[in-house]
Structure prediction request, 348 residues.
Amino acid sequence: MADMLLSDALLRWYRSHARALPWRAQPGEAPPDAYRVWLSEIMLQQTTVAAVKPYFSAFTERWPTVEALAAAANAEIMAAWAGLGYYARARNLHACARAIVSDHDGKFPETEAELRTLPGIGAYTGAAIAAIAFGKSATVVDANVERVIARLHAIETPLPKARPAIRAIAESLTPEIHAGDFAQAMMDLGATICTARNPDCQRCPLQGACLAFRTDDPGRFPIKAPKKAKPVRRGTAYWIERNETVLLVRHPERGMLGGMRALPSTGWREASPGPADAPAGIDWTRYGTVSHVFTHFALELEVVGGRALTDEDHQGEWWPIATIEEAGLPTLFAKAVALVGAQRENDQ
Ligand code: SF4
Prediction:
């Protein structure tokens, strides 16, 4: 199948099989508002559609325009993002909204090149906004698209080395018109039919052009370079209680979990922190350990708790324990809090 025929076959399939998603326009409808496309694409980075949906509704209800988001307090945005992970995205989201309001009169620029000058918008997101919101012929390559193309061409070179070749093929397939529908069609095909495990080739509109389909194991593609085991780091988090409140701190703006509320904790390093690192003057109880996997390392976080005799020696915010769910803690610390809660229930 020549490139144009393949694009046409995919677009035809998309017209009757497009996923209905809250940030989408259906095929043939006017393109969605760039604000909604941008917000959804930032949220979808490394995050599933199912996880993003409630956050997308909450954000668009609370901040329906880019101006409203730009005017929000940073702490509110960080708290509303809590649980979605990769918090640098939320910091950049706010910086980007402010840049659009102050430098672009509240309107998203339409070209990939201009979009990429904005905070948090890289090659993928710039292309997705240009194609989906503005109909530009931009090539959008996410993990779904990568998988579909690696299979169509039965590419034996492992990822990530195969990426330049995959991008070149994606560029040759991208049509001049309907580029937004084409990008979303590729994503939908990868998400619903050409899935990572057990691709449903019998329902695939591209079966006739697919080299992997002619092999006995299409799901073998894309070939992946063997993964290196993630290094393990260790640390301790402190649940410090006083008068039905618990001490929370805010991580510095720059760095991991930047700007997020958290339990006080040691640094995270290869060796376990010793008791000498613990805040003084408290009789500690050990609650257990929570595990969390970040992009570059796995963390084993020991959770210990105790009562502070005074609040003078502790810097931070004393948060009511009864409303701790509203503190907007990132997932790692939400797990630590859940561990403490379970232990406290057992002890009652
Ligand atoms: S035929 Fe199978 S492997 Fe090939 S693109 Fe379609 S679903 Fe993927």
In short: The chain has two domains: 3-220, 232-347.
